[in-house]
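tokens incoming
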């Protein structure tokens, strides 16, 4: 731009031309390029958001379909599963009752085995006076004519099924007066023996079964009189 100062000190236009015309063109191109880049970035961002939203919608629909299918399958399997649970519970109850019955009947079975063995033993040298069953052990009170007879008698009892050990707890001479002499058949020794059984039933209460009086030899094998 060319101008000069007038008389009054004001600028007077005398004409001119732009020496750098490409600057304006480059500036316009830069503005258009920046606008296009911003528009492209906005479009890409919107496309990415739409893609993520579409994928989430697809996944939600797929999961809902699977959930509905699983609910239908569980509803179909509910009766068989309930029946299976009921049968399993009944089987567990039967096993528990069987285990309980075995534990409770163990002292009785031991007593029956012991009585069967006692019924088979001769009573010439040893006479049983009292028997007490206490779950995992049995106490015996008997009279004997000689120590050897009582030892052999106790050895026979130690061979009863389930007996872990047999021991003599007390051995003393028997007084020859009163009912004791008649019951012992003139024996001179009275001894207390104790039988210990294997695998004592922990849940079984003490049976408290006791018997007194001399054991006699049965008329038939295996019987008790």
């Amino acid at each position: 731009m060319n101008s000069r100062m007038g008389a009054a000190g004001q600028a007077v236009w005398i004409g001119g031309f732009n020496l750098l015309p490409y600057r304006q063109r480059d500036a316009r191109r830069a503005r258009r390029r920046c606008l296009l880049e911003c528009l492209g970035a906005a479009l890409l961002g919107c496309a990415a958001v739409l893609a993520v939203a579409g994928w989430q919608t697809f996944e939600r629909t797929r999961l809902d379909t699977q959930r509905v299918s699983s609910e239908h399958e569980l509803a179909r399997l509910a009766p068989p599963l309930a029946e299976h649970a009921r049968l399993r519970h009944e089987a567990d109850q039967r096993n528990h009752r069987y285990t309980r019955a075995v534990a409770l009947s163990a002292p009785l079975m031991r007593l029956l085995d012991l009585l069967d063995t006692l019924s088979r033993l001769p009573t010439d040298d040893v006479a049983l006076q009292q028997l007490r069953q206490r779950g995992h052990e049995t106490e015996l009170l008997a009279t004997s004519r000689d120590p050897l007879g009582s030892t052999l008698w106790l050895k026979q009892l130690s061979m009863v099924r389930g007996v872990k050990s047999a021991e003599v707890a007390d051995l003393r001479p028997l007084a020859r007066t009163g009912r004791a002499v008649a019951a012992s058949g003139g024996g001179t020794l009275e001894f207390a023996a104790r039988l210990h059984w294997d695998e004592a039933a922990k849940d079984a209460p003490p049976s408290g079964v006791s018997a007194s009086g001399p054991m006699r030899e049965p008329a038939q094998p295996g019987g008790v009189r």
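note: Confidence is low (pLDDT under 50) at residues 180-185, 200-225.
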